[in-house]
Amino acid sequence: MSDGRSVSGQLKKFVFRGKSSSNGDTRGEYLEIVIPELLTAGYSFYTWPSAPLLAWYLWTQRRHLRGLRVLELGCGTGLPGILAAKCGARVTLTDSVALPRSLRHLSACCEANGLVVNRDVKILGLAWGLFLSEVHALRPVDLILASDCFYEPSQFEEVLSTVAYLLDGTDARFLCSYQERSADWSIEALLKKWGLKGALLDLDSLSESSGLAFTMAEALPEYPDSDFSDDEQSPLDKSFSKASDHVRKLTNVLNNNQLLELYGLYKQGTEGKCNIPKPGWLDGRGRKKWEAWNSLRDMPQDEAKQKYIALVQKYAPELTDLSNDNESGVKEAWVAVSSMLKSPEPELVHNELSILDAARENCADRVTELLSKHPELRHETDEDGLSALHWAADRNATEALKAALEGGCPVDAVDECGQTALHYAATCGHIESTTILLKAGASLLKDEDDCTPLDLASDDDIRKVLEGAK
Fold first, then answer.
1. Is residue 175 domain-shared with residue 218, that is, in the same domain?
2. Rounded to two decimals, what is the model's pTM?
3. Residue 46 and residue 39 in contact, taking contact as beta carbons nearer than 8 Å
4. Which of 100, 45, 92 is nearest to 73 (CA)?
5. pLDDT for 201-237, tens place per residue?
6. Together in a domain, 157 and 51
7. Backbone phi, then psi, for 55, in 5-degree steps?
8. What element of type H or E holds 271?
9. What contacts 13, CB < 8 A, 6 or more positions away?
């Protein structure tokens, strides 16, 4: 590597490439990692077969890695962790504190790939199963990696107890690759003992496209303001709207499971049966939200609204069910009994929305207002390069999408991965947003993986629309 230093021992090169383009050009995304190996030394000085497998999976998920807090356990030469760091993750590499030579060799592996220890990566010696201050300082973490840590049966429980401690109370994920060398050495019983659930990833499905179409989900449920007037709402919808408004004040006092249950019922009540693909494996929060919604299957929307209202009433003692009808004959289901607990006025909340928030929440009027006053906001993006069009397309916020387009937002603006809003709409299965973007002149551009929106679309109706635009 040109950006690394010379090292002793045998060098093993691992090359990871992005999807080749149709004209045979293979100069797309490319990453080369070199690992110095000392084959005459202990087993932590060379790369075991499970490590390249884990590294390749991370490469297919590289879009999700940027900014993630990644911890690799028992990393040996550190191939998976080094790859994650090269893809933008904040990585801590660990191995046994009793093996100082291994830790020094791990440092050499990092430096051979242009990574500066304590700047680009951290290296730490750990003792599995001992919850010392060093282990506590590793939390919080988003993703824990391990390749072939399950080699010595005597250490299986020490590894899993450490993993269980780091995962406890978080949305972190544990991803490991290992060779099961004997049926008597299974970790299934230990997973159950430590309250962990495992799932096998299908190697046949490992590809450039698996799980790449989703950005990291934001922190748990959102409850956008209703865009219906009171005159247009049924009594049930009025109660549902008031309940969802009140949930804004509960998000800091409810636990994740309670919020997820509310989220699923809210989505079912407003949109019906789950209509989006399941997020990729690394998107732990997104998958939990998807599962909460998808688990409701074919529950009627009115039933979901009723269950949502009942659940909010259970969690909110300051709301009470009125037994008397009002003058119009409509029974009000909710009332705030303390003026201190009232939600902010809708207009005040509306005026605080940024261009990206307004697009995400489908607040078309706010989008129009901001773009008319500040035309430069048409180029505004978040840290991942997502514009107002990206967010509106991702959420199928069609009114905000139209407003952003009318306000001059570039229809073919790309995020950090080279994807346009049309990529997002097509991937998420949003036929309305896809149609709007195509009418606005959106192009079938290729992203950094050489994929057009048509390549990423799984919905047949969307594929037909996109094929007609070619």
1. no
2. 0.46
3. yes
4. 92
5. 655 444 443 332 222 222 233 433 333 344 456 788 8
6. yes
7. -65, -40
8. helix 256-271
9. 32, 33, 34
